[in-house]
Amino acid sequence: MKLEYILPSDIEKRSFEIIESELERDISQKIRPIVVRVIHTTADFEYADTLYFSENAVDTFKSLISKNAVIVTDTNMAKAGINKAALKKLGLECVCFMADDDVAQKAKKEGLTRAAVSVDKAASLGRPVIYAVGNAPTALIRICEHIKKGDFAPKLVIGVPVGFVNVVQSKEMLINSGIECIVARGRKGGSGVAAAICNALMYMFGGR
């Protein structure tokens, strides 16, 4: 096995060439850049089969660019992974409430996770919300509870929490809620995947 000698500036390009050459599934061009970027982030081709896109998920993101939308993440790690230059170029904002004192206090008082309370805080923003969940199924469950009550519904949810407890169930709840969403079905996901999906969407619509 021979090493490839690649200039640092060409490593990402070469990585995408390899992915494209090995990606056997026929994937719609509308979602292909997202699937490929997630595979690039994870080196896991299974995402080509497990990523679910609601019918208007990509178009919904595009429509939100000009509407003062805010991306809310369930971890500061996901927030850190979202391209700041792309956010600025598109006029978007990204926030995470997980470390906020009021969130911590309410979570402790009510016996909830910070992720669930963060959803409640996002509901009060008064702006269109794109919710990116890479870690906490309780965030997806809380979002679905709000949707059922009719008092808050993000315009788009990226539901890719990773783990074992209520992860699969919460993702299916989200899909069945009827809201526009992008979901990594099964146990896989993570903050890196959530950030990769956000970045891919931004790059598709002029963020790069």
Task: Walk me through this protein's architecture.
The chain is of the alpha/beta class and 208 residues long. It has one domain: Cobalamin biosynthesis CobH/CbiC, precorrin-8X methylmutase (Rossmann fold, 3-Layer(aba) Sandwich), CATH 3.40.50.10230. It has eleven helices and six strands. A six-stranded mixed beta sheet has the order 1-6-5-4-2-3, with helices on both faces. Helix 2 runs antiparallel to helix 11 and helix 9 packs parallel to helix 10. The radius of gyration is 17 Å and the shape is globular.
Based on secondary structure, the structural category is alpha/beta
Sketch the major β-sheet: 6 strands, mixed
Count of the domains: 1
**Euclidean distance between termini CA atoms:** 35 Å
Beta strand count = 6
- Helix-strand pattern, N to C? HHHEHEHHEHHEHEHEH
Write the CATH architecture name. 3-Layer(aba) Sandwich
Helix and strand topology:
Blueprint: H1 11-22, H2 32-42, H3 47-50, E1 51-53, H4 57-64, E2 70-73, H5 76-81, H6 84-90, E3 93-96, H7 101-110, H8 114-123, E4 129-133, H9 137-149, E5 156-159, H10 167-176, E6 181-184, H11 191-204
Parallel strand pairs: 2-3, 2-4, 4-5, 5-6
Antiparallel strand pairs: 1-6
